[in-house]
Amino acid sequence: MLWVNLIMDTFASLALATEKPTESLLLRKPYGRNKPLISHTMMKNILGQAFYQLVVIFTLVFTGEKLFDIDSGRNAPLHSPPSKHYTIVFNTFVLMQLCNEINARKVHGERNVFEGVFSNAIFCAITDGTLLVQLVIVEVGGKPFSCTELTVEQWLWSLFLGIGTLLWGQLITTIPNSYLKFLTELGHGRPKEEILEAELAEGAGEIDHAERELHRGQILWFRGINRIRAQSRVDGECISYFLLRGLRKTTNTKFSSQLKKI
Questions:
Q1: Which domains does the chain have, with CATH numbers?
Q2: What are the C-alpha distances in Å from 170 to residues 15, 49, 110, 164, 174?
Q3: How far apart are CA 67 and CA 238, in angstroms?
Q4: Over the stretch 125-167, which tens digit does the pLDDT of each residue have?
Q5: pTM metric for this prediction
Q6: By the 8 A CB rule, do 83 and 76 touch?
């Protein structure tokens, strides 16, 4: 799990964050502040790739032993040695993530996902390093990584299914966004016109949440000012009281002194 999380999160984000800006990206108009963080194309790729990977993983988990003519890992005892069945599942999943990193380089519907890939040395180094470490984990990792050695044929099938994410990504790109209208609801929400109509239908007496927060802030502000004024008034009265008291004591002391002199 640690290795998978490193591939899918840390290494992938580091590799993709080092992509150099392209000319088309610099010429693209900025998004509005009301635009969703995930665009229609990104949502289409996420859902499409999730569908492909789930189909592949479930197929390997439940029918992999029949496809590769190996022992099933599902029926293995608790402390049994690592099985080829689950090693193939793990290896295929990692290779799919590795190939999907190349798809993630282009998020605006571009066809050529390999464009400029060799100009980013960090991306190439991370990709090659991940593939090399995965090879070592599968072939040498053994019981600590719950893996066992795979044959060349099994490696080729895992690599073929991993490369399938690239081919599947091209198929997803072919689908126009206009055909997936349900993604509009997931990505944008209701238009402003519908929101205004809904608010008017609820009644003119309803106060918008932002307006309610504004009124609440104004009330707290006025309460604070009134408290400051009241405290200032109390402090002023206390100061006046002590001044008068001190003045009376001084006056009484002087009057007593004069009486004694008389």
A1: 2-189 (1.20.1110.10)
A2: 21, 11, 9, 10, 6
A3: 92
A4: 988 999 999 999 999 988 888 899 999 999 999 999 999 999 9
A5: 0.67
A6: yes
